[in-house]
Structure formats: C-alpha cells, structure tokens
Design brief:
Two copies of one chain form a homodimer. By secondary structure, the first copy, chain A, is mainly alpha-helical. A two-stranded antiparallel sheet of chain A has the order 1-2. At the A-B interface, α1, α2, α5 and α6 of A face α1, α2, α5 and α6 of B. Chain A binds a DNA duplex (23 and 23 nucleotides) through α4.
DNA sequence: TATTGTTATACTCTATAACTATA
DNA sequence: TATAGTTATAGAGTATAACAATA
C-alpha cells in the first residue's frame, strides 16, 4: 500500500471537506481564468465560446449534439452559441451526407488562429500568476488538478 | 527543506503546464459544481447568487460595492443581482446612517435557511462524487485546492 | 415513431453609459 | 467635485416548449 512520508501526521481529507473547499475556491479560480481570457482586448472569447471552439477544433467534425454534451448544455443553447461562432467566422457547418439531420462542425482557419492566440494569452497570463509559487506548491497544484480531471472530466457522471 | 518521498522521480510541474491544466479542467469542475447546486429542484440558486448570498451572510453588513468587489463584477451588475435577492426575500437593505449613499445589506432568516439548504445539498452531492476517490487522491485534491485558494482567493491580483 | 436540430420565449448575468443622491 | 448606487440598454448564456426535417 502507498507508504507515506513519515514527516508530519497527516489529517485525513474527507470528501465533505474537499467538497466545501471546492465550493468556495473554484468560483474565484474561475474568475481568474475568465480574466486571463479577457486580458488581450479586442481579441477575446467567453469561457463557453472558448470551450466550444476548443472542442470542435480537437474533434474531427462533431455534431451540435456532441458539443452540447461536452460543454454540458442543452441543444438549443449549443445551437445558438455555435450560430454566434459561425456568424463570427470561426466555425463552418456542413450537412452530414450520411444523415442529413446532422450538421458537421469545423473550425475555420480564422477560428483556429483566434483560438491559438486566446489560449496562448490565457495560459501565459495564468502562468505568470502561478510563477510566484514554489516548486512544491506547483506540484501539489498539478496533482490536485489531475484528481479533479479524473473525477469531473474523464468520469463525468456516476 | 521539504524532503520528498524517494519512490519515483518527479517531473517538475511548470507554471505553464499548470496553467494549461487549469484551462481545461476548471470549466468541467465548475459544471459539476453548478449541477450540484441545481440538484434539489425547487430549491436552487445560481452560482453567482450563491456567492453573493454567502458573502453577505458572512460579513456583518456589507455595501453593494463590497459585494461587487468580492464576486468580481461591476456595481450595476451587483446592484441588479442584489435586487433580485431582495425581491426573493433573501436579503434586506438599510440605508447607512453614517453615509446615506450606502446601502447596508443583510441576509434575512429566509435567505439564511435557503443558503444553508443549498450549501448542504451541494456539498453532499459533491462529496458523494468525491467519495469514490482514495485517501491519497483526496489529500492531493485538498492540497491542490489550498494552493488554488492561496493564489486566487487570498491574493487576488498582484 | 424517434432523433437531430432550430425557433420562440423568457430569465439571469454581465457590461457601459447616463443619471441621482449624498459627501 | 468625487463617490455610492441605480436605471437604461444591450448582448451572451441558459433553459423549456414547440416545431421542422430526416431516419
């Protein structure tokens, strides 16, 4: 079984304590994330738009339903969001020849460039804030985020 | 200096890597948090409303400006949000006798009960998902959240 | 008949600009 | 004149209900 560092007695972390910490930490962290995405004026994307675009970019040609499922919204919501991205020239749609009810989505070259700039800017700006942390804290953060991902990204619902 | 477990060689976590992890993990975690707050039908609060109410509840009698600063929105936004909470009977306002421009906010007993129920429900529902994790993962999560809090809650901007 | 997606409608969240009241 | 707050307006994000088109 996993042997632990013998240094200090570790108080066990209960699921309830973690849930509480999640509840009052996550919203602030999201604020910072949002801010990092708005920093480059004139070149911005809301968090939902960013997620939407990033998802479409990394799938080959997802449907509206797939986007909705991924970002966790209803189809009407995804539909209008995608519509805005299409009007902004970031996404193109094509009818699926195999099932004409489906729209296959793709990020345009414009959208791809836009996504790249936003992502890089946000990452840089967040990294700058994180650069104040020591190596131990960074590692702890990374591990915590891994757990978060395994819980809420890789295994969405139970 | 902090001695490390001698088990495996640890790849150093760079601020950039953590920023990337933040960018693609946090939104999903927020989805889960939002869902946990909506679970109890008929007894819900949006995340911003929850933050607003929770802040007012734990301060003695904050002003609209203080709420705006805490949740990171402009005053008009805070003003209308609070107005909704007032109309819902969760918050009461009183003119500050010392400076009649200020409104002093308070959570009503109704609001307090509501907040308690929502918070408990959300915590329980999140805790249930986290209960699948082992003790090590829970600890890692707790530590990661501590780092997140120290970075984005305790020390908002540089 | 079931599924994919859109349209209609309504609310919250959010900002900027313009205004009111008080210091 | 400066500050606290509100009102007006506009747009994004969100949901439910109703509809269209296709399987």
């Amino acid at each position: 079984m996993p042997q632990r560092a013998a240094s200090a007695p570790r108080p066990a972390a209960s699921p309830e304590d973690c849930a509480t910490a999640l509840l009052d930490t996550l919203p602030h962290a999201m604020d910072a994330l949002r801010a990092s995405m708005r920093e480059h004026v004139g070149e911005e994307l809301s968090v939902p738009q960013f997620r939407c675009l990033a998802f479409i970019a990394r799938e080959r040609a997802p449907t509206v339903g797939a986007v909705a499922a991924f970002i966790g919204v209803t189809m009407p919501t995804a539909s209008t969001m995608i519509d805005r991205l299409v009007r902004a020239g970031a996404v193109s749609t094509a009818v699926d020849p195999a099932d004409r009810r489906r729209s296959l989505l793709q990020v345009t070259e414009t959208g791809r460039a836009r996504l790249r700039r936003i992502r890089q800017g946000a990452r840089q700006s967040l990294a700058q804030e994180l650069a104040r942390l020591g190596a131990d804290d960074l590692l702890a953060l990374q591990r915590g985020l891994d757990v978060l991902r395994s819980t809420f990204v890789d295994a969405p619902d139970t």
